[in-house]
Amino acid sequence: MKRSLLSILFFLIFTDIHAQFQADTTYFENYRDQLTTRFYTSRKYTSLLVRDQLTNQSYRFEPNSTLNLGVGITYDDFTLNLAYGFGFMNPDRGTGQTRYLDLQAHMYPNKFVIDFFGQFYTGYYLLDDLRAGNDVIFVLPEMQVTKLGVNVQYLLNGEQLSLKAAFLQSAWQKKSAGSLVVGVEAYGSRVANDGLILPSSPELLESRNFDRIASIDFGPNVGYVHTLIFAKHFFLTGMVSANLAVNRISMDLENGREVQWGLSPNFFWRGFVGYNSRLWSINANYVQNRVRNQALNDMESTFLVGNYRLNFVYRIMPGPKLRSKLDAVSPRKIIERLKK
Fold first, then answer.
1. Of the four, 67, 234, 235, 303, which is 20 to 30 A from 284 by CA?
2. Nearest Cα to 52, choosing from 220, 260, 202?
3. What pLDDT was estimated at residue 27?
4. How are beta strands 57-63 and 112-126 bridged, if at all?
């Protein structure tokens, strides 16, 4: 089953890359043969939001992930980014340490929107304590959050709208355009701790607290994306999609494990704003995926995965020697060589 889904996904991507795609150049211009270089700052995170329906108390657990400095390139649908969280950008706030591997990937080949998620985090704190200015912050150093998932959507008006221009800046959107998107998405999420996760309080009975939640979600989605161009070079892009997922959730309580099947809505939104031209761009973008579980034991849980970034971009025309090396990793060039 997994191999079949992956085969279909890669077939769609490769077909889309190699197809005779006819972009409307009055709307956007591709820079496939140019090297798009970027310097950026970014932060990725995977958070857990829990709401107690009986007390209407909300708890937001955050990782102590780093603000990073990075460099990257894009050439003919191949993108490579490298980043590091330097100490001077991440002062100690008394919120503990987080060990994590965050493998978010957001790709926009021609008429597709494709997202992969592979989050592995250990070490969380209660954001509500930090916001309230409490002297002591509730920290769970061994709390683990894992999320795996994929989202594949088809852009109906890909001939006039380029998300590469908004997210990768390897294109320039010159006229406003919008499009519906349709697709499917699937996720597996898990949070676990050595002890109870929620802080003790008179309002919360210990028998209702938990030390593990796991869920599976899959189903179709639909959304809309629009880019607004003003003063020729400035752009504002927004995209939102909703998914009604089949949801299986399990929760480990004092009296054992409870399991429930049902339906639950998920949301995915992205925002991009900045300046773009033929040579350079400066822009900011934000991506958040929200996977919400149905209520179990009167507890609502939501996994939030996000990435925000500020980019400084400059494009150059590579020389013959550099181009030959870049062509070796270009997906389109690889497919062309395989077909010969």
1. 303
2. 202
3. 93
4. antiparallel
